[in-house]
Amino acid sequence: MSIEAKLEELGITLPEAAAPVASYQPLVVSGDTAYVSGQLPFVDGNLVTGKLGQDVTLERGQEAARACGLMILAQLKAAGLLDRVEKVVKLGGFVSSVPNFTGQPKVVNGCSDLMAEVFGDAGRHARSAVGVPVLPLDAAVEVDAIVALRPA
Length: 152
Description:
Elements: H1 3-10, E1 27-30, E2 33-39, E3 42-43, E4 46-47, H2 58-78, E5 85-96, H3 104-119, E6 126-132, E7 141-149
Parallel strand pairs: 5-6
Antiparallel strand pairs: 1-2, 2-7, 3-4, 5-7
Helix pairs in contact: 2-3
């Protein structure tokens, strides 16, 4: 089954791939590896902003991380790579949070769980989940990805 068909079966509609907000490429391929730049969380067209442990709940943070994952998939689709995904190798999750918030891994699960849902075992990956004081545009979460591709 194609990934597009799997997404349809799951009832998932991908957003349009976001344009970069600075001087970088949203996705770079080197050999059979795709490096997806950090993606921000857009839910219903609006950027999820704020800090976990202050004005963003854990559940909203998980929703934001899932939205980052959807944008990662959208970037792969825009590059014509969605059906070449062999393995999601690593995700890097960044969570804007107050100093005493320690639920970063639970927040980033929103993205990790999406990858497993879409790709099955090939979506299970290594990961970082770190707290940071601020993210671009006051985003609550940002996630980047390294993805192994099947040869063209």
